């Protein structure tokens, strides 16, 4: 089959990752690179191919585009998804869909009844370690899943300008963990969260938290605990533990090598963990694109859909409300926000 011709909108930090994936995957080719900053678009195009434009409409109106990837800043996502649906072009859109649930709901009917696939970029679903964990649970290795623990600590906080527009820790950082939780236990009915500012004055000045703990309750009473921090002295900390009626499965942190070193000052010393999300989750972006290509070709796939993006945002809103009020918050992920 011919290669899928991809138009990329947004050539920033994550746009560069998507461009590299499109150039790497045998079944896809980068046809257009669009960024309002044409220097960024040109840099990506020189490295991975594609024609350059500053205007997204050029990409939607081009006759040689089979699908688009939306990797521009969050406030642009819903408008660009709307253009994609109107133009009949399949879209993979970065998370979050938007920071405002009302805006997500306004577009919900159009998005979920669109004739073309819309996928949301929850790449961690495709991480091979987490995917294998799901397989082992599904094959009955630990009986029925009762408790899930997700530890997700960033290496260090982003720039203050980034954090100021990120929507806060729950919509920016925990949102990935909400989706990871739902990839194991889709139906969540209650959220209890606490936030604290333990180390960053600039995050405190933004009325945001640098540290958070969340407890999610599943429809069958299952418990998911999420532990977040905006920093970790020992590196990017990404672990999941699944406890069931017949046993336990864990996913630990990942180093580039499993060679260990014993010496007078340390034992069992490993290389540092993979640096940050671009390294730790690099395979997941490629596997996500491969699943999106299946969606575009009308084949069965595991992509996260629009309502998965909506559910993660609803959980983030509930966590924020719970942290601010000290109360547990009930959620109905299928109902109105
Ligand atoms: N899935 C992940 O792991 C992951 C990681 C990082 C960021 N993200 C998400 O990806 C999105 C982009 O984040 P980033 O860190 O790459 O930001 P960034 O600021 O590095 O890049 C965004 C780019 O979009 C461009 N842009 C903005 N509006 C545009 C428009 N109307 N038309 C064309 N280009 C436009 C900007 O010029 C910029 O180059 C955000 O929604 C973010 O939440 C996801």
Automatic annotation (TrEMBL):
> InterPro entries, from UniProt?
Gfo/Idh/MocA-like_OxRdtase_N, GFO_IDH_MocA-like_dom, NAD(P)-bd_dom_sf
Q: Where is the GFO/IDH/MocA-like oxidoreductase domain?
A: 130-249
Q: Which residues cross the membrane?
A: none
Pfam families named in the record: GFO_IDH_MocA, GFO_IDH_MocA_C3
Alphabetized SUPFAM superfamilies for the sequence = Glyceraldehyde-3-phosphate dehydrogenase-like, C-terminal domain, NAD(P)-binding Rossmann-fold domains
> Which species does this protein come from?
Rudaeicoccus suwonensis
| Gene Ontology molecular function | nucleotide binding; oxidoreductase activity
Q: Which UniProt keywords apply?
A: NAD, Oxidoreductase
Instruction: Return the protein name.
Output: Myo-inositol 2-dehydrogenase/D-chiro-inositol 1-dehydrogenase
């Amino acid at each position: 089959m011919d290669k899928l011709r991809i138009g990329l909108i947004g050539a920033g930090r994550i746009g560069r990752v998507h461009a590299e994936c499109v150039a790497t995957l045998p079944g896809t080719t980068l046809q257009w690179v669009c960024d309002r900053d044409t220097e960024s678009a040109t840099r990506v195009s020189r490295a991975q191919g594609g024609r350059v434009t500053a205007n997204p409409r050029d990409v939607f109106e081009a006759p040689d585009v089979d699908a688009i990837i939306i990797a521009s800043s969050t406030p642009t996502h819903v408008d660009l998804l709307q253009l994609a649906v109107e133009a009949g072009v399949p879209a993979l859109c970065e998370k979050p869909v938007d920071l405002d649930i009302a805006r997500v709901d306004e577009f919900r009917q159009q998005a979920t009844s669109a004739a073309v696939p819309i996928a949301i970029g929850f790449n961690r679903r495709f991480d091979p370690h987490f995917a294998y964990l799901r397989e082992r649970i599904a094959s009955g290795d630990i009986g029925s899943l009762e408790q899930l623990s997700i530890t997700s600590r960033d290496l260090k906080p982003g720039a203050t300008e980034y954090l100021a527009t990120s929507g806060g820790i729950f919509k920016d950082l925990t949102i990935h963990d909400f989706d990871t939780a739902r990839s194991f236990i889709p139906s969540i009915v209650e959220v209890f969260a606490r936030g604290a500012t333990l180390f960053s004055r600039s995050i405190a000045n933004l009325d945001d938290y640098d540290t958070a703990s969340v407890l999610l309750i599943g429809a069958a009473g299952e418990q998911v605990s999420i532990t977040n921090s905006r920093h970790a002295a020992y590196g990017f900390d990404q672990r999941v533990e699944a406890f069931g009626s017949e046993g336990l499965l864990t996913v630990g942190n990942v180093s580039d090598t499993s060679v260990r070193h014993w010496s007078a000052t340390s034992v069992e010393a490993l290389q540092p963990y993979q640096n940050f999300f671009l390294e730790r989750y690099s395979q997941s972006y490629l596997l996500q694109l491969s699943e999106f290509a299946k969606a575009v070709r009308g084949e069965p796939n595991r992509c996260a859909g629009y309502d998965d993006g909506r559910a993660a945002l609803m959980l983030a809103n509930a966590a924020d409300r719970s942290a601010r009020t000290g109360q547990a918050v009930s959620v109905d992920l299928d109902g109105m926000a």
